[in-house]
Design goal:
The complex is a heterodimer.
Chain A (H helix, E strand, L loop, with lengths): L1 H61 L6 H16 L3 H22 L3 H5 L1 H36 L3 H7 L12 H4 L7
Helix pairs in contact in A: 1-2, 1-5, 2-3
Chain B lengths: L6 H35 L2 H20 L3 H7 L2 E3 L5 H17 L5 E5 L6 E4 L7 E5 H6 L2 H16 L2 H27 L13 H41 L2 H13 L38 H9 L2
Parallel strand pairs in B: 2-4
Antiparallel strand pairs in B: 1-2, 3-4
The chains are: A mainly alpha, B mainly alpha.
């Protein structure tokens, strides 16, 4: 009689123990997934904001830069491909292109003292740098989240639960080497 | 330059050490409460009925030492987006909060020529980062970013909460030991109830009670310094640029503090570098809230 009791209690404790672990991992996986989605949403918001700022910038700059048609065209082109991008990676690639185009625009702007003194231009430049940095950091946060997600579902015992929940590892956003340095150029 | 340590490993090691030290602190607290009960009532459990409520009251009191109090002690004002410098500060904080995956904190500025910054707030949803105008003038963007990343890490690691609770425990231990010492002065405690041959135990308990406040204070300071290192390495992880913070710390070290520091000493542990210390490069003392700045720089450079 006593033995049955003991076995029963041990079984209950074991079941409760596994239920708790499952609960913990289930929540952890869902939570990280949400975090990944959220960081992507952040990137998306910033990309849109950036695309919205470009026409203003072109408008402001046009009057000053008469001989830099090509630079301006590149910016507009990059913006268009950003607007048309669909997958996350396409978005990021288009954004990198835009960053490069803007970089040469701001470099050229050094030759136009009047433009550099324009309050509107300064504000736009600050804000564009800001969105650029935000994108870089959201991307970093996105990759951090993906890393911790992949670690969870690829290591023991998360591995089991991930299989049960039918979860697969996620892709990180790839960034070309040279653009990693870009966000440090800040103002 | 020492051997390279992965930032992630530094962070993990720091966290483990904090847990260890906090456990020690908790044991110290329980020990004091038990010693108190033993001396007063010859019963360690009655003391729990006293010790726990005192601790809770203490936590509530220090906890209600709110954001407003800290900000007004520092004479801080909200950042003004109309000035370009402060607008860029707001931008930087926005960027770092995205990197940390935290909600945007409120941004405050303290008018002071010294380079410093602090973060406060009970939880990440409701926090404040404050930077001195000196830091805005003297730090390069990369360095400012490092300082902000450090503060953001304090918020992310719930350091304000940890500081509040540990200060409360230190306070409670000090209070209990004071009550006991006073009661000895008045000749009361436990006399006459001491009947068995437990005199030695009582003496041990008394010595323990006298030493406990010192130990708890030291433990608190160890925790405070640990959390600084942790915020440094975490900040380096967020900005992916340990050099930025290292350079900022170097500037803080070489910066001659001018004028009287504002604010109260109680908030000193919140700052990135103790604002009340004149020579920042001095060797680490067990009585300081922050680790020696040179060691912090060395660790950042070894990442």
């Amino acid at each position: 009689m006593d033995l049955i009791w003991i076995i029963g209690i041990v079984v209950i404790i074991l079941v409760a123990f596994f239920a708790l672990i499952y609960w913990g991992f289930y929540n952890r996986i869902i939570r990280t997934e949400n975090r990944i989605d959220n960081s992507w949403a952040q990137i998306d918001v910033q990309l849109k904001r950036r695309a919205d700022l470009i026409p203003n910038l072109i408008e402001t700059v046009k009057g000053y830069m008469k001989h830099e048609k090509e630079v301006l065209e590149n910016v507009t082109k990059a913006r268009t491909s950003l607007m048309n991008a669909k997958s996350p990676q396409e978005n990021i690639d288009a954004d990198n292109m835009l960053t490069g185009a803007l970089k040469s625009l701001f470099a050229v702007s050094e030759n136009y003292p009047d433009l550099k003194a324009n309050q509107n231009f300064l504000n736009l430049q600050d804000e564009l740098t800001n969105t650029e940095n935000k994108i870089a950091y959201s991307r970093q946060h996105f990759n951090d989240s993906v890393l911790s997600y992949n670690n969870t579902i690829e290591t023991f015992p998360g591995l089991w639960f991930a299989k049960k929940m039918n979860r697969k590892t996620k892709e990180m956003l790839k960034v070309p080497e040279e653009s990693k340095e870009l966000h440090k150029v800040a103002f | 330059m020492g051997k390279k340590i992965l930032i992630e490993d530094q962070i993990r090691r720091n966290k483990q050490l904090t847990i260890l030290i906090c456990t020690f602190m908790a044991l110290l607290f329980i020990g004091v409460v038990f010693a108190f009960g033993y001396i007063f009532f010859q019963n360690i459990f009655i003391a729990l009925a006293f010790g726990i409520p005192i601790a809770i009251v203490y936590v509530v009191i220090t906890y209600s030492f709110s954001i407003k109090t800290v900000l007004s002690a520092a004479k801080a004002r909200p950042a003004n987006p109309k000035s370009r410098e402060e607008k860029i500060l707001i931008y930087k904080i926005e960027e770092m909060s995205i990197a940390a995956g935290l909600p945007m904190p409120k941004v405050y500025v303290q008018d002071s020529e010294n380079i410093n910054a602090f973060a406060t707030g009970k939880k990440p949803e409701n926090s404040v980062v404050c930077v001195t105008t000196g830091a805005l003038h003297k730090l390069k963007p990369e360095e400012l970013e490092g300082v902000i990343a450090h503060e953001m890490s304090h918020i992310k690691n719930h350091d304000i909460l940890i500081a509040t609770v540990t200060i409360a425990v230190v306070g409670t231990i000090a209070l209990i030991s004071e009550i006991l010492l006073y009661s000895f002065l008045w000749g009361g405690a436990g006399r006459g109830r001491r009947n068995d041959g437990n005199a030695i135990l009582i003496v041990i308990a008394i010595i323990f009670i006298i030493l406990a406040p010192i130990f708890s204070r030291l433990t608190y300071l160890v925790i405070s310094r640990r959390r600084e290192y942790l915020a440094d390495s975490n900040g380096a992880y967020l900005s992916r640029n340990p050099e930025g913070l290292a350079k900022a710390l170097e500037k803080i070290k070489n910066d001659q503090p001018s004028g009287k520091p504002k604010g109260s000493k109680t908030v000193a542990p919140l700052y990135i570098a103790n604002p009340f210390k004149r020579s920042r490069s001095e060797r680490g003392s067990i009585w300081s809230t922050h680790p020696p700045i040179d060691e912090r720089i060395r660790r950042l450079r070894s990442m």
